From TrEMBL:
Species of the source: Microbispora cellulosiformans
Pfam family, one: AMP-binding
PROSITE patterns assigned to the protein according to its UniProt record, in alphabetical order: AMP_BINDING
Residue ranges that the Swiss-Prot or TrEMBL entry lists as coiled coil: none
High-level lineage: Bacteria, Bacillati, Actinomycetota, Actinomycetes, Streptosporangiales
A GO term for molecular function: acid-thiol ligase activity
Record's compositionally biased regions (Polar residues): 1-14
Name of the protein this chain belongs to: AMP-binding protein
Length: 450
């Protein structure tokens, strides 16, 4: 394969060529209501597919090393739907034969997209209608850049090397017992690390990923994939719709804390769930069912925060000089404990609610309330109060036909938590508002009714 040349892509329209043995091809499922502006190659065929020359084969060739381009590697912002063009770019980024990639969702509102491009300064922007050079673009030594900002502030670019991404994917496959020919379903945005890692695992398995640009419980259940990554909201919707969750050998569940009630219900329906903990800075999930993946170390600092070390860590934040590691450890924003080698995440450090001088971990309260028989989804937030400083507020999406109120939830919580941790207000919503990555929109939740 020829090496990447930036000039070659200055004004060339983006065309998806016919697949060849050296190309990565994906099977794409999309609803008739939404058609993208480029041709999708590949189609659903047998349950086992070979994806041409897989990444393991390429990287294991004698003398082959991923090319590195410290300070000189172009950065392509890929404003593309999931499909062959995006995935081939990621494959080439991992082998070092192409530029670094910065996947950005094509569904981003224009102001958010412009803010991401202005902050992260890619050298080129790739869209369905072509490629344009950015005059103020800055190269990178990374393979993949993940834009992460939640719903606040300017986006931050997490830079990940091919070595970190591959170390994560190899450890994941080893833990799951997944191997060559196993197919993965991607129904999470590739602009987020959870979606991007589905591709990396697929490449190492040498099998086409199945791509669902829009989440449909029925289509997910009928996909024929061996493994899938979901967030709790997606799993909840599959259970509510009666979709068959037992069809997969593995469901990786991450992105947010999974309520115990949800896990119990899914497992009773035959789902083989593996809960994951991680973030963009750790190349995705690096702790499975509380146990770190091989090569990953977890510790709790004096401030109670979870610390992570190992080959999966980021190389830095794009165009930022701030330190990203503390003596080799990445310090998370989560509180946790480790007992007998198993990590328990208690909640985010910034989700501690100070109510009347007592500290309450919002995630711990939400975990308890999720066990109430009338609660489908719940998020707990702190809200300013003139008497208490902050009060505990439960934002609840109830189950269909069920009634839930403040007195009932307070009584339920008091049976399981200190009285001061019980919610002092309950707000009922049809659904918990979510960010594109499936996590609760905490800013929207905290600002409700203000």
């Amino acid at each position: 394969m020829s090496s990447y040349s930036p000039d070659r892509f200055q004004s060339t329209p983006l065309v998806t060529p016919a697949p060849s043995p050296s190309q990565f091809v994906v099977t794409v499922h999309q609803s008739p209501a939404r058609r993208h502006q480029y041709a999708v190659t590949g189609r659903a065929v047998a349950s086992r597919h070979r994806a041409g020359t897989n990444l393991t084969t390429v990287l294991s060739r004698p003398g082959h090393r991923p090319r590195t381009h410290p300070g000189e590697r172009p950065v392509h912002a890929l404003v593309l739907p999931a499909g062959p063009a995006l995935y081939d770019a990621v494959r080439r980024a991992l082998t070092g034969d192409g530029p670094a990639v910065l996947p950005l969702s094509p569904d981003l509102p224009r102001p958010a997209l412009e803010a991401a491009l202005a902050t992260l300064r890619p050298t080129h922007v790739v869209a369905p209608d072509g490629v344009r050079r950015q005059p103020d673009g800055v190269p990178s030594g990374a393979a993949l850049i993940i834009a992460t900002s939640g719903s606040t502030g300017a986006p931050k670019g997490v830079e990940l090397t091919a070595e970190a991404l591959l170390a994560s994917a190899r450890a994941s496959l080893a833990r799951l017992g997944a191997g060559e020919g196993d197919r993965w379903l991607c129904c999470l945005p590739p602009s987020h690390i959870s979606g991007a890692q589905v591709l990396v695992r697929s490449l190492l398995c040498g099998a086409e990923p199945i791509v669902h640009p829009r989440f449909s419980p029925a289509a997910v259940a009928a996909s024929g994939a061996d493994h899938v990554s979901l967030v709790p909201t997606q799993l909840r919707r599959m259970l509510d719709s009666g979709a068959g969750v037992a069809a997969f050998r593995t469901i990786l569940l991450g992105g947010a804390a999974a309520p115990a009630g949800l896990l119990a219900e899914a497992r009773a329906a035959g789902a083989r769930i593996v809960t994951t903990y991680g973030m963009s800075e750790t190349s995705g999930g690096c702790v499975y069912d509380g146990v770190p993946l091989d090569g990953v170390d977890v510790a709790i600092g004096g401030d109670g925060r979870v610390r992570i070390a190992g080959p999966v860590l980021l190389s830095g934040y794009r165009l930022r000089d701030e330190p990203h590691l503390d003596d080799g450890w990445f310090v998370t924003s989560d509180l946790g404990s480790v007992e007998d080698g198993r990590l328990t995440v208690l909640g985010r450090a910034d989700d501690v609610i100070n109510t009347g001088g007592r500290k309450v971990v919002a995630g711990a309260v939400a975990e308890v309330l999720s066990g109430h028989p009338a609660v489908r989804d719940v998020v707990v937030v702190g809200r300013s109060d003139p008497e208490w400083g902050e009060i505990v507020v439960a934002v609840v999406a109830g189950k269909t036909g069920a009634k839930v109120g403040l007195d009932d939830l307070r009584a339920f919580a008091k049976e399981r938590l200190p009285a001061y941790a019980a919610p002092r207000a309950v707000e009922l919503v049809p659904r918990i508002p979510l960010l594109p990555n499936g996590k609760p929109d905490m800013v929207a939740l905290r600002n409700r009714n203000r």
